[in-house]
DNA sequence: CGTCTCTTTGAATGGTATCAAACCCGGTGG
DNA sequence: CCACCGGGTTTGATACCATTCAAAGAGACG
């Protein structure tokens, strides 16, 4: 069945990648028009994914690859001991489900942090396209390598930096990603709670809270619950870039 | 030029993947015989890579993909501030150079920790094969996904566990990898120095040293410089598996 | 308006970094 | 053969940052 061409269109509800406002962020821009057309035919555009709904669980066999169109998503893994390890946050344009690429089963889980819309590509359709297009394979390799680089960055942040630096980097990273999506980089709302931030950064809730308060006290940011305003971007960057040598050494160099 | 068919062969110096003692560990087992034959034609078998020689540097454009045949290699990245971040250690059978897959440039550096032998596949040959074999693409995706999983594991280890658990996990991981290669899992030599271990685990040299001493005092292992013997594997596993709740909580669950 | 959850703040504990010095070992030269 | 290095490693004392335990405060929602 072709994407429904009747019924009411909601705001921002496109039916073709070519019209999509996210096109410049989406991997669809990297494949050739023929393949994109074919993609269009198999994409399921889904909306109304509500807060705390799971896109997939770890261990589950992959049903689709998805691109986030609006909202935000938390990726996490569950350790043998049953506790959560937050591995990242997805924003519009990000691809969700690459973790199932090797085994066909998702390595981790993904859950909506707020109301979300998605473009879903069924795996069998996608695998068929992969088998025929080396170009698409390359794009996927690139995406995986990027996730890898991200994981490595996180490794550095979580394992080796003090709390203040971790939080500064988190805020700046988020700010930069929002900016690339055409949103205000200095005034935004955190869709995840303190627990998720703490877990992601390898800290406790209390430390995250204290650090945010301290940054506010120092006039670097303004925080009010989930709302954040970056007041002194330069100062924040300096904290993040470790320009001062106020961090643990941990056998570097 | 074909791989030299005259000259003296050194011990363990094969000229075909089919004869290679590492075959069961190598990704070459996962491709079909035709492709493997073709691989054989382009592989450069290199030896005499001596300690502290670099295979590649971060930022360098990739010249070849390599499989380690003997020895061991340290992978690391250099941060903007110039200090080192050890991301892993390669053992025989491991593929080196996947980090250049997306951009064509190596994300990190790789340096020999001792005398090494390698199988090198020139990138242009390899890319040609990639363009023609979806199967090979899949194998590469799987390898990348495995590196990814490894990076995630490390993230958990480095960011969230206490020193004792980190060291225990490090020793067990190494032990398991050696065992899979047919070596003694309980008696081995660390090819990396304390600095590298500390950096890899996100600790200081002193803490690593102290922790090893403590494990010895508790009768779990025996250490003498770079030589390690696992005395009580069960105890070590219990430390690593967090069976006791003696670790920071850090917003889990 | 009351309840529940999330968040913030406070005080005390503890693990790891830091600073400093001793130790061990292989290599070198007297 | 031994004294003397120099690097890597071990050990000790102290300081500090983040966790932990505890409780108050703020928001969301019925």
Structural notes for this entry:
By secondary structure, chain A is α+β, with helices and mostly antiparallel strands. Chain A has two domains: 17-157, Jelly Rolls; 161-240, Arc Repressor Mutant, subunit A (Orthogonal Bundle), CATH 1.10.10.10. Helices cover 37% and strands 21% of the residues of chain A. In chain A, helix 2 packs across helix 3 (134-160) and helix 5 (194-201) crosses helix 6 (205-217). The radius of gyration of chain A is 20 Å and the shape is globular. Chain A starts with 32 loop residues before the first helix and ends in a 13-residue tail after the last helix. At the A-B interface, strand 5, helix 2, helix 3 and helix 5 of A face strand 5, helix 2, helix 3 and helix 5 of B. Chain A binds a DNA duplex (30 and 30 nucleotides) through residues 162-163, 193-195, 203-207, 209-210, 212-213, 225, 248-250.
Task: Kindly state the percentage of residues in helix of chain A.
Answer: 25-40%
What best-fitting shape of chain A do the alpha-carbon axes yield? Answer: globular
CATH superfamily of the largest domain in chain A: Jelly Rolls
How many strand segments of chain A?
11
Question: Which CATH architecture of the largest domain in chain A is right?
Answer: Sandwich
Question: What is the N-to-C order of secondary-structure elements of chain A (H for helix, E for strand)?
Answer: HEEEEEEEEHHHEHHEEH
The whole-number mean of residue pLDDT values of chain A reads: 88
Spatially, the strands of the biggest sheet of chain A line up as 1-8-3-6
CATH class of the largest domain in chain A: Mainly Beta
Q: What is the straight-line distance between the termini of chain A?
A: 59 Å
Name the biggest interface. Answer: A-B, 53 and 53 residues
Organism (chains A, B): Wenzhouxiangella sediminis
InterPro entries (chains A, B): cNMP-bd_dom, cNMP-bd_dom_sf, Env_Response_Regulators, HTH_CRP, RmlC-like_jellyroll, WH-like_DNA-bd_sf, WH_DNA-bd_sf
GO molecular function (chains A, B): DNA binding; DNA-binding transcription factor activity
Domain HTH crp-type (chains A, B): 161-234
């Amino acid at each position: 069945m072709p994407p429904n061409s009747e019924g009411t269109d909601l705001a921002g509800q496109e039916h073709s990648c070519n019209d999509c406002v996210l096109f410049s962020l989406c991997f669809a821009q990297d494949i050739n028009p023929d393949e994109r057309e074919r993609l269009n035919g198999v994409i399921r555009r889904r909306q109304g994914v509500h807060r705390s709904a799971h896109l997939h669980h770890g261990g589950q066999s992959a049903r689709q690859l998805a691109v986030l169109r609006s909202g935000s998503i938390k990726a996490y893994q569950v350790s043998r001991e049953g506790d959560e390890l937050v591995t990242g946050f997805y924003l519009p344009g990000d691809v969700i489900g690459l973790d199932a690429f090797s085994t066909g089963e998702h390595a981790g889980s993904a859950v909506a942090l707020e109301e979300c819309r998605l473009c879903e590509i069924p795996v069998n359709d996608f695998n068929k396209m992969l088998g025929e297009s080396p170009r698409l394979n390359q794009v996927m390799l690139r995406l995986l390598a990027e996730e890898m680089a991200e994981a490595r960055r996180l490794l550095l942040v979580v394992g080796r930096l003090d709390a203040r630096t971790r939080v500064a980097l988190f805020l700046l990273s988020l700010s930069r990603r929002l900016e690339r999506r055409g949103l205000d980089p200095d005034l935004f709302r955190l869709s995840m709670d303190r627990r998720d931030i703490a877990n992601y950064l390898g800290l406790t809730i209390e430390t995250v809270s204290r650090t945010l308060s301290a940054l506010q006290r120092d006039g670097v940011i303004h925080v009010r619950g989930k709302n954040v305003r970056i007041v002194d971007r330069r100062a924040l960057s300096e904290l993040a870039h470790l320009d001062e040598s106020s961090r643990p050494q941990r056998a570097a160099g």
